Structure formats: C-alpha cells, structure tokens
Structures
1.
Amino acid sequence: MKVQILSRKLIAPSSPNPPNLQNLKISCFDQLAPPTYVPRIFYYPVSGEDHGGNNADRSKKVEKSLAETLTLFYPLGGRYIEENLSIECNDEGAEYLEAQVSDSLSQLLGREEFKTEMRWRLVPQVFRPENNPPLTIQFNRFECGGVATGSCAAHRIADAYTVGTFINTRAAACRMGIGKVHRCPGFPSGSLFPPKNIPATTSVDDLISAGAIKKHGEKKREMPT
C-alpha cells in the first residue's frame, strides 16, 4: 500500500479566539500525561454507485467543519508551550493533509497485516506537541472511492472525552452545519487543578500522597514545601 501526501495546510478557526481566552493552563493531571499523540482512524467504504467522484467535495466539507469546530475547541487550534505548562490559543490552526492511497479500502480491511502496522500509514506522523499543532487530520482517498480519516491529538492537551466530543461535534457540523451544534465545551481543569512545580517523574499517586490533589471524598491538603 502506497500513501502519497498530496497537500498539507493549516486550518485556522473560522472565527478569531477572544483575548480573554488566549492563554489556557493545563491541569496537573495533563502535566503528568506522556507527551505523545493519540491516533484514531475512521473508515468510510464506497457505497452504491458512488465511486468517490465527490471525494473532493467531501474534503472541502471536512475542512470547513474543522475550521468551524475549532472555534468551540479553541485549544486544539493553538500551540503548547512546555516551559509555561500552557496552551497559547493563538488560532494558528490544526494541520490538514490530503493523501492518495494506491489500493482498495475493502481489500485492505480484509488483510491481516493491515490490522497492525500498515494502517498507521493513514495517520499523520507527529511525535511531540511542542511547537506542533495539537491536532492533525489526514484525509485519505482510495482508488475504489472509499475514504479513511486519520487523526492525531496531543494527549497532554485533549483527553479521550474531549477528543470524542470534538469528533462528534465536527461530524454534526459537517452534516448539518455548525449552527445546529448547541454543545459548547468548557476547559476548566487548568483552573480547578492547576499545574504544580514537580519533577517530571512524578505520578498521580505521588500527588495524592503529597496532598496536592485529593481522592474522591477527601479534603485537599496543602502542598508541602
């Protein structure tokens, strides 16, 4: 399977982020998360007599819905600043790639090797969030007309719930328009659980033991100095 990258661009939010939301601290939990990206792939096999003739239009719709959804999920359009433990929500945008795959999606899904290392060619290759977009999406077109979208989100910036909500919101915006999306996410974890001046090897259990955070039902103690 050969995957050829056709284009690469940054998709900025469709509306600028207001000044009061330009800087967002990560939480102490996110501070301890590994500086990696979490990949996801969604497959869309060709159906009926549609042989991918509208894939160019589909890509444009994905781009448009991505720009619109980034206005709600504005940290994913910013940049992570390691030394400040914060996200500069500066509207630089998410990265968007278009790729051509020299094979049939239905045939690839039936191959045993595709279930392991081969499928990761459909996902953007990003390794650390510093100075890189927190979110990257790759729109893969197959010869049969099928499509696969691969995405990578920085684990330190977006947990599984946030990414899942983003995917559902973007899909709804793509189908119905952003005006039909009524859920407006919040990002309060950095203020509720602010980052700590702690060694990089510290674990969540270490924070609980030190009293920096509390288990459910326990009162928070002051961080010892």
2.
Amino acid sequence: MMNKKLSPEDAFYENLTLGLIRTLSNVPRVCNVTLERRQPLNACQLVNWEQRHCVYLPEDMKKFYLSSDGFILNWSYQYAPNDIRRVGHIHFPHLLQVTLLRENIETTSSHSSNSTAVPNSNSDVVGAAGSSQSLPAPIATGKDKWGNATPIITAKSKIFEINNVNEVAKVCMLYESTSSNNPKFYLLELSTLSWQFLADTFSEYLRMAIAHLGLPYWELCFSTCGLPSWTEQLFLLLAPHLLEEHEPRRGRVLNPACEHPYNIIDPNIFRGKPKSVAKATATSTKQNHK
C-alpha cells in the first residue's frame, strides 16, 4: 500500500514537530497522540502585542506565531490494560497568553530579601525594584548548576511567562534590556527564585521540547530540584539517554558528536499556511455558520 500523501497543513505540522507525532505513534504503550492546531496570527496582532509590552519579538518567534498561534501536543501511556493516562504534553501558548511576569518577581524578591535571603557580596546583580532592594542571593550567584551565566536583572529587564511547570518552576523569556530583540529562555525555580538557563533562542527551546518527547515536566531535568519520581520512571522507560549524567543537552552542547544526532528545525517552515489551506478553512467556517 502506498503511503498517503500529506496535505500542505499536515506537512507543515509534521515539519514543525520534526516528525514527533509519527515517532510517538510507533512507541509501544504510547497512544492517543493528538495535536491541537491553531490559526496563525496576522501581522497587526503581533505588532499590537509588541507595542503593548514595548519589546520586539525575535524573528524566529515572530515567524512561528505568524504560522500558528501556538499549539498543544498530548499523548497517553498505557500502564496496564485498563489504565491509560495522559502524560505527554507540549504546550506553546497563544501569544496573548505570554504575559509579563516582572511585577510578580519583584514582589516575591522583595519579600525574600527581607526574610531569608543572605546578601551575596560577589553579586553584580542590581535590585529589580530599585537600588535599596536587592534580589535574593540565589538569583545573584552568577552561574547556574550547569555553569551557564544567570541573567542580570535590572530596572530595564522584562520577564515573560511561557509555561508553568508543575507549580514549582516557570519557563520564562527574559529580556535583559528592552532595547534587545534577542531574549533568552530560562527556568525560574519558584522556591529559591534561582535561574537555570534553557535556551538561547525560541527555536532552540522548541527543539528541546520535541527532543524530550513532551515527557512530563521535562524542563525540571535542568533544575536543582530534579524530576518527580513517577516522571523519572517514564524517562527511564522511554528515553533513558536523556537522564545520562553527561548527556550533551545538560552542558548545552549544540553540535554533539555523531553518536548523539540532533534534528534541526528549518526556519523556512515558519511561514503562513498555503493559500489553499486558508481558503478551505474559511469555506468550512462559513458552512458551519449556515
């Protein structure tokens, strides 16, 4: 039997997820792989978001949202014949859901610095709320647990929440200055307000989510608190190499040796869906309203 030819829209999401849907569908006990597709933003909506927050989105992120206003990929795992649970999850929010987190960080930092934080004499981080209020020591250590530089938070910094990870951490897009259009992506651990570096670019963060198969709370692989035990069991079952002590992702090695190949996202896939798809969607919408 010949393979069914993919529609332009199917091909777009196949390329966007680097074939992850097909890969997961072939993994034993993984089932109910679903992808929530979304319409693209128009340029006006994107500019409105930038003007509201007084920052410029990086080019790869702009192209992503002009192609699809986020997406959600879910999958389930069959623990027993009658025990199927949804565990896998990749969530890229609607752009309107990418919200400013800065005020919350300032408030929490202020309370922490007045109670438990010990000043760090080696810190070169400026207090977020002003010169008289310093951020707590965990934020100002200069290096995360993997040796990557932690961000310098100043009055010009802007922090946006991308995802909440099990209420213990947040994935943040951080502009160290509003004049920059190259934000970096960090994991903010809420218990200590410490930063762990995740990715230099939006495309890299997207690729990391796919490389980790959307396994639950995969971002906590890069945290100091680590994965919940039940999640670690899933990693050991489905992707044990991701837990190796010297796994290249831990050291942020982006060009590893050939025995650890990486799929690369082609920026050309970040484009508007073909006109034929857009017309078909519009026709379907009109028919549904009749």
3.
Amino acid sequence: MAHEEKKLKLYSYWRSSCSCRIRIALNLKGSFFSILSFLHLLLTTFGYRLLSVAGLEYQYIPVNLLKGEQFSPEFQKLNPIGYVPVLVDGDIVISDSFAIFMYLEEKYPQHPLLPSDLQKKALNFQAANIVCSSIQPLQNLAVLKYIEEKASPDEKIPWAKRHIEKGFEALEKLLKDHAGIYATGDEVFMADLFLAPQVHAGIKRFNVDMAKFPLLSRLNEAYSELPHFQNAMPENQPDSPSAWGTC
C-alpha cells in the first residue's frame, strides 16, 4: 500500500497530445533507457521489434474529456482550468505539460532531455513552444467545439489544419540547419517529445498532408522506431477506444 501511495500519478486522456508528451518523458526517464535503446537497435537490425519499455513507474488515471470529467470538482481541485495532463507526486501537484516536463527533468536527471549546450537548449525551447503555444491550443477540444457551435461543424478541420500547417512550416525552417537523426541532433531531446505527438495528431486526426513537410516526415519515421515513443502514443493507452472513428 505504501508503494502505491508513493507512485507517480498521471491524469491523462488518451488522445491528448499534451498528455502524450509527458507519457514519453516518463518512459524515457527510466534508468535503463540507454540499454533498451541499444537492444532495440540490435533487434530491429535483425528484423525484430521491441514493444515494451522500462520507464518511471506511474499510475495512469484516465480523464474522459468528451464526458466532461475535467470539470468535476475532484479534478478541478487538481487543475482549476480543467486541462490534462496533471502529475501528482506525493503532495506535489503539477499541471501543464511544460511545467511537468521541467519538473521531471530536474527530479530525474537520468537520460537528460535538455542538452547542456546553451544554444541547443534554447532551440529545444523554441521548437517546444511553437507546438504548445502556436499549434496545439488552436486545435484543442474546447476551441474546436466553440468553432462548431459558433460557425459550423464543417469549419473545424480546416481551422485546425490551417494552424497546424502554419506551425509545421515554421518548424521546418527553424530545424532545417540543426536536425540530425532527431529534431536538434542525433539525440532525443525536449523538442522531439513535443513534436512527435503533434505530428501524430496532424496525420491521424486532421489529415495533414505531410508531403509538404519533409523534415517533420523524416522525424516522424525516426520516432516510429522508438518504443519509448510508440508506447506513449494515443492508440496504445488504456482509455483508447477501439477505433479512431468513435471519438
């Protein structure tokens, strides 16, 4: 019982890209990341795929946004604005994916997700902020519902695609001279954790034509080979419905 009380708790929604960022971070912050990454590379070389990951242990607590569970008195005590994710670590309650990421980065220094180089660190902050400030808020459930009510249901997808593609264009320009295997070089850092869920949502939810974004398309392929990323994707969450069309 004491172990259960000390375990991290993540309040999450399966399709939330903000929650997905933190699910990836929790996976990566496990002590055995480097060993598993090497093992995954070795196995995939010979045609096998590693599906499990060894990250930080946490309790997944689903919050159904479509049913309005984020507005319940219990959840509002955790986050008055009613957004996921929320991380609970003992007596510490943190909402907002950016704040949670920074908390995990400082508390769990294993496998740093911010580079030591100051310029590269700033680049990661820029890329992450394009996603979490200039793309995701304009395609979230509350905004799309408002557009549906005030304009037309037919306007939701075009609205989202317009802002996603604008952000993707900016990211392509920002990262073109810095990307390696991943967004800011040959190691996984913060920018990748913010990019992967957003690109996934762009493709799966909003039918964005990724042919227009060759760099992001290449990064998306790289992320598809990382079990720590794929384990965190929406379709692999316990509260995910059986098909995208039911949400």
4.
Amino acid sequence: MVRTEAKDKDFYFPTYQAKWRRLCAVSPVQERSLERTDTDEFILPTGANKTRGRFELAFLTIGGCCMTGAAFGAVNGLRLGLKETQNMAWSKPRNVQILNMVTRQGALWANTLGSLALLYSAFGVIIEKTRGAEDDLNTVAAGTMTGMLYKCTGGLRGVARGGLAGLTLTSLYALYNNWEHMKGSFLQQSL
C-alpha cells in the first residue's frame, strides 16, 4: 500500500492544535445541556411536594438510629471490655473478651434504637394519614405513644414513665425545630 508522504503526515501526525480542536469540539446540543440551570433536576408528579413526607423519612430515621446505636454500643462495649479485663495481661483471651463485649453492646444498642425508631416512624405515619396533616402534634403524639408501647411491659407505672419520656423528648425536639419561628413571634408581640 503506497501513500503519499503528505497524506501520511497529515493523517498520522496532526498538529497539536488540530487534535485539541477535534477533542474539544462541542455540538450546540451539548452546549445547552452543559449550561447550569437553577431549576430542579427531577420531575415531580402534579401536586406533589418538594419535601419528603414522614414515610420517606422513616427509612432514614430507622437506619440512622440503628447505625448510631451500633456506634454508641461499640464504644460502650470497648469501655466495658477494657474495664472488665483490666487485671488480665494483653493476650488473645483478653482481646476476644473485649471484641465479644463490643459486638454484644453494639448489637444491643442498635436493636434498641432501631426498634424505637421503627415504632416512632410507624406511629408518625399512621397519625399523619389519620389526621391528614403534618405538624408538631403528630411528632409529639408519635413520641408519646412510642414511649408508652416500648415500656408497656413495666405495668401502668412503666407505661406512664415511657409516655412521659417520649412526650418530653419529642416536645423538646418540636420546640427546637420551631425555635426561630417562635422567636420571631415573640419579637413581633413585644414590639
């Protein structure tokens, strides 16, 4: 196969600038698609909210509580394991005992917080669907009912303590969540 020298040179050894132009060539369609827009990048059904509802947030809540419980339990298990084996020399039995304590405590706390989050999320979704409104009353009611059900094995006194603990924690959360709104309302009333 015989080729002329000029064709070979142009074909096989293009100049750097020509090669760069070919690589960086962008069509008009690509230029429009590469432009930044301030609109949302997802399509919502007609009448849908941009915020997530309780049901969508339930998965995040449950998973987050399980992971938080596992991390807290692992640290607590390490603390307890080191405390219980402080008289032992560093050896395999001591390491195994510490790891067992870390695993046991991590699973215990993950299960506890995950169960509480599951109950809270289920009550929250049920209350929201029943009432047809999403507000802080749902949050406080779900927390109170979660505490009551979680401590129901302790009799009426346990139910009352659990309900009071749930009511207190969710009321504090609702207060924290609406602090800016309440502060603005107080400032308007004082003027």
